[in-house]
Amino acid sequence: MIAGLIILLLVILFLPFLLKAVEHNLEYFLFVMGIIGVIISKQMNLKLFEHILQNRLIYYITFAVLIAGLLFFFFRSRINKMIELLTHKISIQFFVFILILILGLSSSFITAIIASLLLTEILHHTPLERNTKLKVIVLACFAIGFGAALTPVGEPLATITISKLKADFFYLARAIGFEIIITILLMAFLAALVVKKANKVDKDEYIENTEGVKDVFLRAFKVFVFVFALELLGTAFKPLIDLYIIKLDAKILYWVNMISAIVDNATLAAAEISKEMTNEQVRAIILGMIISGGMLIPGNIPNIISAGKFKIKSKEWAKIGVPIGLILMVTYFVLVFIVRV
C-alpha cells in the first residue's frame, strides 16, 4: 500500500509536466488520482463520499467562485472603467503593489478564495501583457496564501491549526505574523518590480471580453471537482502521513511538508499539529506548508482559480513558483532553526 501511494504521489507530481492532456484538465486528473488513491489505501466506500459531500466548505468555495464570477461578468464594463481610471491616475507598478498588499493582508478576513477572485478579475483588466500578468499572479498567490494563515477565517489550514491547538483567534498572527507581513510586502514589491520592467499593451490586446456565463459556471464546477479531489487525496495519503511523516523531527518535517504543493495542507495540518508541540515546531510546520502551497498549481485554491482564469500551464507556474518557494524555504529555515528569530 505504502509503495503504491508513493508511486501515486510521483505520478501526481510529474505527469502534469509531461502530458498536455493532463495539464489542460488538471482538476479532473486530480479527481481520478484521488479515486485511485483511496482504492490503494483501502478507504474507498460510500461513507467517504457522504462525508466529503457533507463538508460545507466545498459548497462555500464553489458558490463563492460562481457568484463572484457572475457579478464580475455582469459588471465587467464598470470594473474596467474603474481600473482604467485608477491606472491613469497612479502608476501601474504602484497600483499592483497596493493591490497585492491589500489582498494579501485582507485574505485572512475575506478568505483566500474571495481575495483570489478579486485578483484575477482586476488583473484581467490591467494593461499588461500575459507573461507579466503570469508573474504577478504567482507572486500574488504567494501573498494571499501567506495572508490567509493569519486568522482561522482565511483558510482551512489556519482553522484546523487553531482547533487542534485549542488556541485563541490571533495565535497564528502572533506566532508567524512577522514572517507573513514581511513576505506579503516582499511579494508586492517584486510584483511592482516586474511590472515596472514590462511594457504596457494596447487596450484591444489586454481585454479579452470573450468569457460567457457558461464559462463562469464551468469554472465553478472545476473548482468543485478540484476541492473534492483534494479531499480524496488527503484521505488517500493519510496512512502514509500517519506512518512516517508525523514522527519526524520539526526540521525534517519543514522540508517534507513541501508535499503540500500537491497535497491538501489542511490534511497535513490535521495529522501533524498537536498541543504537545513547541511554538518553534508549529511555526516551522505552518511556514513549510504555506510556502510550498504557492509553488505548484494544486498547492492552493487561489492557484487553481487564477490558473483556470488565465489558462496558466503547470510548467509556466512551476517555472516561477518553484524558485520563489525554494528561496523562501531556505530563508525561513535559516531564520527559524539556525538564527532562531
From TrEMBL:
The keyword Transmembrane applies. The chain crosses the membrane at residues 29-45, 57-75, 95-120, 132-151, 171-195, 216-237, 252-273, 285-305, 317-339. Keywords: Membrane, Transmembrane, Transmembrane helix. The keyword Transmembrane helix applies. Signal peptide: none annotated. Coiled coil: none annotated. This is Cation transporter. It comes from Caldicellulosiruptor acetigenus (strain ATCC 700853 / DSM 12137 / I77R1B) (Caldicellulosiruptor kristjanssonii).
